[in-house]
Amino acid sequence: MDHQAIKDLLPFAALDRLEPDEARELEEHLRAGCDECEAELRELREVAASLALSLEQESSEAGSEERIWERLQARLDGAVPQTGRPAGAKAADSARRPARGRVGAWRAATAVMAAGIIGIAIYAGQLSDRLRRANEEHQQQLAAMNSRLAGLNAELEKTRVEVGTLQRVLGDRIRLEKVLSAPDLRLTRLAPLTPAPGAHAIVAVSATNKAAVFQAAGLPPTPPGKTYELWWITKEHGPLAAGLFRAEDGHPVVAPVAPPPPGEHVLLSAVTLEPAGGVSKPTGAMYLKGAPGPA
């Protein structure tokens, strides 16, 4: 017998179900020094003994042996030729041990199942890869949408600021027109001084409306941390703060300011550059100055 045929006998040898000629062939093979078959036979005998012990409570010895064979079936490689034996001996042997052809069929069925499992695993891997790519694409699209949304929000905020600025400018111009159309209008023209030689301004006051509006052009842009401040310089209390405003390059200034307090006689109006937030008394350089016109 070749080596594979000898290996096919090992499960039967573990259950002492070899024919004499088979037992002799196996013994000679082991004496020749096949460590692989010797180790496998030893392992199979240990397994058979363990299974027999666990099944010793079974009611039928044949049933116990059948169970042991079922546990050892994975060790069987296929049928071993039974040539040269009487038909009666073969029938008796079939009654004593499972047919090896059945084991081969079980092995074939196991191979089919294994192939099916491998196919399912491959399909699952492909499906997982598709899902991963779809998720990556979804994340990229989501990131692009978030970026676009952030851009739209920034544009919206910018538009809101611009609308707010336009509303303030429009309100200031309406206030200026209202003051300018008042019957008790009083104007103070401010002339430029050294820091702003090209600037000029007008302060319009209406006591009836209790309002005053400052309009200027040509002032230098307001430096960081600074603000322009308008003053009423009165006979009774000297300089009184009238309002704060900022100037931008190329844009005229229109800002509401506080009218002179009732009972104060204004001698001059002036604009100085002060720290941001303003001060109670002038401290910075004077940019514009002028006396009020006739009432």
Structure commentary:
The protein has 295 residues and is α+β, with helices and mostly antiparallel strands. The chain has 6 helices and 8 strands. The chain has helices at 3-14, 20-31, 35-54, 61-72, 87-96, 100-180, and strands spanning 186-192, 200-206, 211-217, 226-234, 238-245, 253-257, 266-275, 286-290. It has an 8-stranded antiparallel sheet, covered by helices on one side. Strand 2 and strand 3 (211-217) form a beta hairpin. Helix 1 crosses helix 2 (20-31) and helix 3 (35-54) crosses helix 4. The radius of gyration is 54 Å and the shape is rod-shaped. It starts with a helix and ends in a 5-residue tail after the last strand.
- Named CATH architecture of the largest domain: Sandwich
Strand content: 15-25%
Q: Which consecutive residue ranges, at least 5 long each, have pLDDT under 50?
A: 58-62, 76-96, 98-105
Mean of all residue-level pLDDT scores: 79
From the helix content, strand content and strand pairing, which structural class follows?
A: alpha+beta
What topology, given as strand order, has the largest sheet?
5-4-7-8-1-2-3-6
The tally of helices reads 6
CATH topology value of the largest domain: Immunoglobulin-like
Largest sheet: 8 strands, antiparallel
- Total individual domains: 3
| N to C succession of SSEs | HHHHHHEEEEEEEE
The CATH class designation of the largest domain is Mainly Beta
Distance between the termini: 136 Å
| Count of β-strands | 8
- Gyration radius (Cα, Å) is 54 Å
Share in helix: 40-55%
Overall 3D shape: rod-shaped
